[in-house]
Amino acid sequence: MxxxxxxxxxxxxxCMISLQSCSKKKEAHPLARAYGKELLWxxxxxxxxxxxxxxxxxxxLKKIVAGWIMEQIKLNVSSATINTKAPEIExxxxxxxxxxxxxxxxxxKVAELLDTVVTESELKKMFENNKxxxxxxNNVVRLVFVKIKSNxxxxxxxxxxxxxxxxxxxxKLQEMSSQYAENSFLEDxxxxxxDDITKELPIKTYDAEQFLxxxxxxxxxxxxxxxxxxxxxxxxxxSSSNFEFERENIKKVILQNxxxxxxxxLEITLKKEAELKNEVENFVN
Length: 285
Fold this sequence. Notes:
The protein is α+β, with helices and mostly antiparallel strands and 285 residues long. It has helices at 2-17, 23-28, 41-44, 54-81, 87-113, 120-129, 155-163, 167-180, 194-200, 208-214, 243-276; strands at 32-34, 37-39, 140-149, 183-185, 192-193, 217-222, 225-235.
């Protein structure tokens, strides 16, 4: 077992140091054999690129090799007991191959032709025309907060700036937070999921909606720290969502619509070209 580990480690380390020069040496030593087949380095290498160091690579490589061997065992047993030439199997293999070829062809055309630039006006138009389709699944808020040690003299000044938050005070808070705050968030135009906020801030409530309705400025003492929180705005779940919160979703919808239209037009073009060349005929129409 120790030899196997050293062997795996030596392959990985050597190839990390000299990837090109050792390519032939790697292939000279298969990682595994099964029923006359060999698992070579280049088969496993793509699955090792995101590993975190030699130890992680060794563990990953062992799993790859074990998985490959088990797959070959199952294939061998299956081939011996199942008629691979049976029509239902051949039909499914052919259909899968055809679907895969078409999928990759379409993805390549989409990557080549799809316009991925979405303007602000397009985003807003889509939102305005489909407001009824955008509903919040969670409570969302816009807020600012500063976490600071409660015994600092600056607490009072920061409290005043947070509770009376505006652009001028935002600049002052950014400067003061960088010097005195343990943590802060001052992006008041960003909508956040309230459930995520309660994981970051020690807000204890059994009724989020009631809490948001009854609180605008909140102070929470926890250990040596105090949290100064100003809730700028909020929206309750199941209500109509807002543009900023849905921006990325809208962009995805627009791009998906473009993709669908691109593929539809591609089908029309391909069909016309094939008909002009007299390569296809429809005897049902």
